[in-house]
């Protein structure tokens, strides 16, 4: 991502050209738009009804912070282990089932974290099938007869998050690993480095920007979650945030906690960045030879297959299986002919959001490459931490500026034309898409940046020498090289939007249901069985485009 | 150097996509038909839709709903005078009070509402109206207890050590209960009581009200705190009825002030573009037919005196309700929330 610091169209050395200025303004404009919701929340934090901190600090804040820290550390480590290992196996080795796993490893991603939490609680709690079977087998009769790990716990939450979030890391790292040219690895080997040494000295450093993107998404998603942690009674900062907002009716105080969470996200990003300031890796982009996977045999092949299978099994097959079971059992109670409409709404929103975000993310990342500006850069950086903020809070950050804008327009119209415009944007799907853009920008921006970072600046220079301007280079050089990264980003945004709940709930128009909002009316009351059918549909409907995009991304490789 | 061939994104494709975006954006509707009522609801659609459908059948007035659990007050506030919403349907005194504080609702003076809803269950200036009642009950294991009555105060009694289950102390239903304790006994006394209850918990507060009754069935605890209608929900669910059958439903404090009662309620927004229709719906919801439906379908108690609860709900017996007004309970909510943190109830 630091490639930006090696500007190609450097204003200092060359004369300041019109396009460069233009790109700066474009970045500024887009960044401001995306930042508005976040800034509104921070603005709210200046007007708390009451200073909540003395109360929080003297009571529950230390625990909230500590729990949040442990949760993030745990999820960070476990999901990196899951995601990076599977990406590395799929990208570099042949083993039985590799083709299948290359897409199947994405499946858990379609399962919302709160859904997998319900499912595993249903299975593993005291009355769940699993423990009941154990009791039957061993003749135990009460909880005092044996010990069994409590699923509703910090450890349980870490496992649940890691199981459904590792695909972020898998997807971003796989793209990066596959874009690696074999020559680099061969060079390392021919210089006498073994597999492990090549892994740590050559492969991982080049994957690092991608890993950072995936990990940042995973951790921010963990940070902003409310459904799963409240179900598991794991008290993170979001617990304090919702409590302050809804129980103490202190929105300003809640916004302050949100600001603290954004601070944590910024700190994480900063640490990651400063730790790899020295590392800058490019590759030519034009591959001498595509990477040829090594064939694994015997014990190693079995281990690789088992590892991938367990991830897909635990992260997808079990939850999807149990949901299917309940969906059939409760079909009559939960089927409604409106499902088609809900599914279309979900698809439409997710598709539009993915499209908008890919365009905005690419433009922002690219303009920083060709027209770097410190100010723009920090704005864009800031805009990308909207992801760490709980969706409901960010939704309020969208409501406030849109409502203000709408009422202002209405006022102007009334004074000029004697007729008001009413609310133009509030309560339309524009509001939802706006919230998605503010929330998920980091996904497309991160992927575009990490993709661009792997494209050597000499490419830009060559294009420049050949007389091409920034637009033409973007179109003819960068976009084709970025395609896989952008497809990966589109998959993530799409699925994230399919699952997105809090902002959709608050911002939607009348009578507008998506699959996620429909699930929620049952899920909010822990009615797993009744919500199973709709939850399953989120998974299935979310999967179709995932598979298509994944196919496109794979075709790209063979092209 | 040869550039890879370029197929996309061509400008043509891009512009097509942008058209799709534009089409999508404008499809968000803001239709203002003549005969309709727009509702922001904290209550799940599947709970209220049958009643709203009946209203539409009877009056021809359509209802449009947005369901959200949080953010309703904020949305109303920024939408201001242009808000399309007419009514807010919500549960718990906390949510109703939030609307009062956000200054987004207006008072309604309707003889029908005033006659149907006792003063205790509507705000004193008629800003909001309770529509259904729910008791905060104590569920007691049939197998391992032999009590017929209990007081909330007893829950801190050491005889129940390690035997009580409840959801988070921060949940609005528990906050309202604790606020009512503060109203009756003062903050210091309530703090002592809350510490006592915490000391008696069988497990860290978790899950919803039904999960506590399930825990009784599993032998994890002997007493559970839970709302009344969940008993009905469980009894009529094939898989959950055995949880409910493992416990008796007790109405606390019958020998003194009566059981703590909370409401689901309705309020008219300040902006209300369809005010007349909205008031019609409010009145409809307070009348016998809707009150009966609430009781039949959601197992809640009718707020209108004289309306009989459903057969199942009635079978749990008559009970005496605490006469403390909800306005009074609302005043102590903040103290209650802070007390829960102070005694680290959920920790």
Structure in a nutshell:
The complex is a heterodimer of chains A (559) and B (347). By secondary structure, chain A is mainly α. Chain A is 74% helix and 1% strand.
Description:
- The complex is a heterodimer of chains A (559) and B (347).
- Chain A has one domain (2-406, 421-558): MetI-like fold.
- In chain A, 74% of the residues lie in helices and 1% in strands.
- Chain A has 23 helices and 2 strands.
- A two-stranded parallel ribbon of chain A has the order 1-2.
- Chain B is of the alpha/beta class.
- Chain B folds into 2 domains: 36-133 and 262-310, Periplasmic binding protein-like II (D-Maltodextrin-Binding Protein, domain 2), CATH 3.40.190; 136-260 and 326-342, D-Maltodextrin-Binding Protein, domain 2, CATH 3.40.190.10.
- In chain B, strands 1, 2, 3, 4, 5, 6, 7, 8, 9 and 10 form a 10-stranded mixed beta sheet that branches.
- The N and C termini of chain B lie far apart (65 Å).
- Chains A and B meet through helix 11, helix 15, helix 17, helix 18 and helix 20 of A and helix 1, strand 2, helix 3, helix 4 and helix 8 of B.
Topology readout:
The complex is a heterodimer of chains A (559) and B (347).
Chain A: H1 18-44, H2 53-58, H3 61-92, E1 93-94, H4 98-104, H5 113-124, H6 129-138, H7 154-179, H8 182-190, H9 195-224, H10 227-231, H11 237-247, H12 251-275, E2 294-295, H13 298-329, H14 331-334, H15 339-370, H16 374-383, H17 391-417, H18 429-453, H19 457-465, H20 470-499, H21 502-507, H22 515-523, H23 528-558
Parallel strand pairs in A: 1-2
Chain B: H1 11-26, E1 36-41, H2 45-59, E2 62-67, H3 72-79, E3 87-91, H4 93-102, E4 105-106, H5 111-116, E5 128-141, E6 164-165, H6 172-185, H7 187-200, H8 209-218, E7 223-227, H9 229-235, H10 241-245, E8 247-250, E9 261-269, H11 275-286, H12 288-298, E10 301-302, H13 311-314, H14 326-331, H15 333-342
Parallel strand pairs in B: 1-2, 1-3, 6-7
Antiparallel strand pairs in B: 3-9, 4-9, 5-7, 5-8, 5-9, 5-10
């Amino acid at each position: 991502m630091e490639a930006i610091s090696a500007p190609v169209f450097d204003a200092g050395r060359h004369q300041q050209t019109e396009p460069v200025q233009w790109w700066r303004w474009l970045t500024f404009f887009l960044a401001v738009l995306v930042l508005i919701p976040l800034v509104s929340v921070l603005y709210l934090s200046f007007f708390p009804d009451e200073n909540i901190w003395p109360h929080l600090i003297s009571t529950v804040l230390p625990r909230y912070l500590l729990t949040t820290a442990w949760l993030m550390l745990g999820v960070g480590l476990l999901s990196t282990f899951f995601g990076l290992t599977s990406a590395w196996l799929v990208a570099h080795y042949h083993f039985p089932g590799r083709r299948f796993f290359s897409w199947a490893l994405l499946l858990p991603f379609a399962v919302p974290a709160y859904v997998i939490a319900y499912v595993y609680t249903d299975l593993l709690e005291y009355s769940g099938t699993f423990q009941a079977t154990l009791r039957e087998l061993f003749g135990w009769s009460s909880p005092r007869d044996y010990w069994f790990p409590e699923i509703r716990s910090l450890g349980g939450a870490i496992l649940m998050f890691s199981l459904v979030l590792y695909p972020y890391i898998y997807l971003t790292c796989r793209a990066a690993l596959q874009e690696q040219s074999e020559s680099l690895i061969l060079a390392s080997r021919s210089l006498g480095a073994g597999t492990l040494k090549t892994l740590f000295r050559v492969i991982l450093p080049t994957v690092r920007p991608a890993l950072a993107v995936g990990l940042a998404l995973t951790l921010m998603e963990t940070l902003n979650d409310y459904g799963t942690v409240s179900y598991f009674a794991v008290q993170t900062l979001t617990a304090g945030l919702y409590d302050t907002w809804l129980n103490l009716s202190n929105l300003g105080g809640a916004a302050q906690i949100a600001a603290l969470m954004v601070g944590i996200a910024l700190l994480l990003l900063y640490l990651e960045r400063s730790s790899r300031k020295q590392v800058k890796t490019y590759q030519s982009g034009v591959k001498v030879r595509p990477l040829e996977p090594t064939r694994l045999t015997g014990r190693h092949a079995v281990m690789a297959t088992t590892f991938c299978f367990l991830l897909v099994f635990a992260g997808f097959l079990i939850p999807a299986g149990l949901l299917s079971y309940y969906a059939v059992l409760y079909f009559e109670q939960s089927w409604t002919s409106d499902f088609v409409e809900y599914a279309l709404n979900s698809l439409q929103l997710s598709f539009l959001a993915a499209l908008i975000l890919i365009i905005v993310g690419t433009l922002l990342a690219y303009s920083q490459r060709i027209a770097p500006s410190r100010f723009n850069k920090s704005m864009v950086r800031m805009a990308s931490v909207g992801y760490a903020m709980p969706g409901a809070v960010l939704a309020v950050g969208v409501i406030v500026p849109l409502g203000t804008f709408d009422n202002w327009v209405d006022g102007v119209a009334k004074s000029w034309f004697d007729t008001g415009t009413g609310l133009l944007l509030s309560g339309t799907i524009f509001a939802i898409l706006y919230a998605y853009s503010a929330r998920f920008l980091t996904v497309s921006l991160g992927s575009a940046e990490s993709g661009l970072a792997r494209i050597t600046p000499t490419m830009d220079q060559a294009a420049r020498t050949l007389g091409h301007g920034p637009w033409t280079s973007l179109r003819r050089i960068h976009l084709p090289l970025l395609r896989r990264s952008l497809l990966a980003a589109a998959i993530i945004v799409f699925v994230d939007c399919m699952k997105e709940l809090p902002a959709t709930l608050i911002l939607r128009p009348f009578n507008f249901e998506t699959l996620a909002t429909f699930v929620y009316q049952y899920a909010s009351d822990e009615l797993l069985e009744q919500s199973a059918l709709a939850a399953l549909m989120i998974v299935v409907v979310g999967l179709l485009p995932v598979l298509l995009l994944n196919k496109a991304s794979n075709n790209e490789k063979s092209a | 150097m040869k550039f890879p061939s370029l197929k996309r994104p061509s400008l043509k494709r891009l512009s097509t996509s942008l058209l799709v975006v534009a089409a999508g954006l404008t499809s968000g509707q803001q239709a203002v038909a003549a005969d309709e009522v727009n509702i922001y609801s904290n209550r799940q659609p599947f709970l209220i839709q049958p009643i709203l459908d009946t209203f539409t059948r009877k009056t021809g007035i359509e209802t449009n709903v947005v369901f959200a659990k949080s953010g309703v007050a904020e949305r109303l506030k920024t939408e201001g005078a242009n808000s399309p919403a007419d009514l807010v349907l919500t549960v718990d005194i906390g949510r109703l009070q939030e609307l009062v504080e956000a200054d987004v609702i207006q008072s309604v003076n309707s003889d029908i509402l005033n006659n149907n809803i006792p003063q205790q269950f509507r705000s004193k200036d008629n800003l909001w109206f309770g529509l259904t009642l729910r008791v905060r009950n104590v569920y007691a294991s049939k197998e391992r207890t032999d009590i017929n009555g209990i007081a909330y105060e007893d829950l801190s009694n050491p005889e129940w050590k390690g035997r009580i289950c409840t959801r988070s102390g921060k949940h609005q239903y528990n906050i309202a209960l604790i606020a009512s304790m503060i109203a009756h006994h003062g903050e210091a006394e309530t703090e002592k009581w809350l510490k006592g209850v915490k000391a008696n918990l069988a497990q860290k507060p978790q899950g919803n009200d039904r999960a506590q009754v399930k825990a009784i069935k599993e032998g994890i605890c002997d007493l559970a705190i839970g709302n009344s209608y969940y008993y009905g929900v469980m009894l009529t669910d094939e898989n959950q009825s055995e949880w409910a059958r493992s416990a008796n439903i007790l109405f606390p404090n019958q020998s003194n002030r009566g059981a703590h009662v909370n409401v689901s309620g309705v309020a008219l927004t300040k902006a209300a573009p369809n005010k007349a229709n909205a008031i019609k719906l409010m009145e409809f919801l307070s009348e016998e037919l809707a009150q009966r439906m609430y009781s039949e379908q959601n197992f809640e108690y009718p707020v209108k005196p004289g309306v009989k609860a459903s057969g199942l709900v009635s079978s749990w017996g008559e009970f005496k309700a605490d006469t403390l007004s909800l306005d009074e309970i609302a005043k102590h909510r903040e103290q209650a929330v802070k007390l829960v943190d102070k005694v680290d109830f959920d920790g």
